[in-house]
Specification:
The protein is mostly beta strands. It has a single domain, classed as Neuraminidase (6 Propeller), CATH 2.120.10.10. The protein has 3 helices and 34 strands. The protein has an 8-stranded mixed beta sheet, with no helix packed on it. Strand 33 and strand 34 form a beta hairpin.
Length: 461
């Protein structure tokens, strides 16, 4: 009798579990029509650089977006961009003054807004580089260099095309180049005028890199955070960053030719930032060793179960000659102090970006080749929908004004594929991306910045 009762109990539990699994909510992703933000030059005028890299912001009564219109170069990261606004949820756009940039800061719990602007590299061509033949057993690496001098590097790597990249422990650089700070604009609560500040950054073993071109020009790369700042559940500011091309591993001080990924956190409303998380490449031990740039562009999101998911780009063309490589994912259950071993999430993944909608759905976009959006299927971010394909990963070169028989990768791709995504309403977000082959009113293909609505609907199976 007891056996029969137990058997019936097991059957009942199994039936109930199956019913619950069958009725578990699923998520349907759909996309609306594309809306033009700005049409730029024809791709045959300059395939790569201008009219790329949209950076959107959601203000109180409108959306604004910056568009890069210079060459893609570390000397131009802080160059003046074109700015556009929409007051009808991304349907129509008009150009506005670039002074709006300083209004695009993160709204803090104390009512302040803080904006961390992109910054251009600094020309240090006039600095004298101590030659390598001065490197002797008696050379002291702990000594700070004098003004006007660059010490012997801590490490060196190279890019295709002839760029040498020297890496320096920031503490060894001359005082004028050794500051550990980010430029920050603050609009205090109740005010409208931004105040320039310099946030102090506690970055152990901060490594500054100098790009030396074939003509001898030397540019010190900036260290501004490339990620989008977010407010954490703790009310602190969180932002993702990555190292220069090569860095010193903070665990042992040794040089690595890879990028490393970082997350910084501020508990004092942006006055100071401390490093919360650090990830070294290699992701899969030695199974994927040197055919990579390391972990560079990344983004993270706070999940409903209290964990954090972090997505990481690994490809870097100038390091490997390849424009696509796997995107990795890692997860933390202790507020970013430790992370699971990064695992391959998809075979591509340029500029991963995440946002969380009011309905609780977390969205992820990434690209190259193609542009994709996915949604988390559970509160932990360990299960995701299949990709919604916004732009095909196939050959698009035939769409050009003047198709070429032997396309380069970006002829093939037809986009900068650096997408961004921001919440729109309870169930949807706006996706921003570029299309090099979008026709104007006369049918001429132009490098165009677009946005389109992505809707995430929960549905029962």
């Amino acid at each position: 009798m007891r056996f029969i009762f137990c058997l019936l109990f097991v059957i009942a539990c199994s039936t109930n579990a199956a019913a619950q699994e069958k009725s578990a909510p699923r998520i349907k992703l759909t996309m609306g029509e594309p809306h033009v933000i700005v049409r730029g030059i024809r791709p045959e005028e300059q395939l790569w650089g201008p009219y790329q890299f949209p950076r959107p912001y959601r203000l109180k009564d409108r959306f604004v977006v910056s568009v890069h219109v210079k060459n893609d170069d570390i000397s131009n990261y802080g160059a003046t961009a074109l700015w556009f606004e929409s007051r009808d949820q991304g349907v129509t756009w008009k150009e506005i003054d670039d002074s709006v940039a300083q209004e695009c800061g993160l709204l803090l719990t104390n009512g302040d807004r803080v904006y961390l602007p992109p910054e251009s590299g600094v020309d240090v061509s006039e600095y004298q580089q101590i030659p390598w033949n001065k490197y002797t057993p008696g050379y002291v690496f702990s000594k700070q260099a004098e003004e006007g001098t660059l010490p012997i590097p801590d490490g060196m790597t190279f890019w295709m095309g002839g760029t040498t990249i020297n890496a320096f422990n920031a503490d060894r650089l001359p005082p004028s180049l050794s500051q550990k700070e980010w430029t920050l604009y603050r609009i205090p609560a109740g005010q409208t005028k931004p105040v320039l500040e310099h946030a102090q950054v506690d970055w152990p073993f901060l490594t500054r890199v100098v790009h030396v071109s074939r003509n001898g020009k030397k540019v010190l790369k900036s260290i501004f955070p490339r990620g989008n700042p977010k407010l954490g559940p703790d009310g602190a500011i969180w932002v993702s960053v990555f190292s220069g091309e090569g860095h010193l591993n903070p665990e042992n001080g040794q040089y690595s030719p890879y990028y490393s990924a970082e997350i910084f956190r501020s508990e004092d409303n942006g006055k100071t930032f401390q490093r919360q998380s650090h990830l070294e490449y290699e992701a899969n031990g030695h199974a994927f060793p040197y055919k990579s740039g390391g972990f560079s562009d990344s983004d993270f999101e706070f999940m409903p179960d209290g964990s954090i998911v972090w997505f990481l780009r690994s490809t870097w063309y100038a390091s490997t000659g390849k424009e696509w490589d796997p995107m990795y994912m890692t997860r933390s259950t202790d507020d970013g102090r430790t992370w699971s071993k990064p695992v391959k999430f998809d075979k591509v993944g340029i500029l991963p970006r995440l946002c969380r909608l009011e309905n609780g759905v977390t969205l992820l976009c990434y690209a190259r080749p193609g542009t994709f959006v996915r949604a988390a299927l559970n509160d932990s971010g360990t299960e995701w929908t299949e990709p919604l394909v916004v732009m095909t990963p196939g050959d698009r070169s035939g769409l050009a004004n003047k198709p070429v028989a032997d396309p380069t990768f970006h002829d093939w791709d037809g986009s900068c594929n650096n997408p961004e995504i921001v919440p729109l309403d309870e169930n949807s977000a706006l996706l921003f991306y570029s299309d090099f082959y979008y026709p104007d009113e006369s049918g001429v293909k132009r490098k165009t910045i677009l946005c389109r609505k992505i809707t995430a609907e929960r549905e029962a199976e």
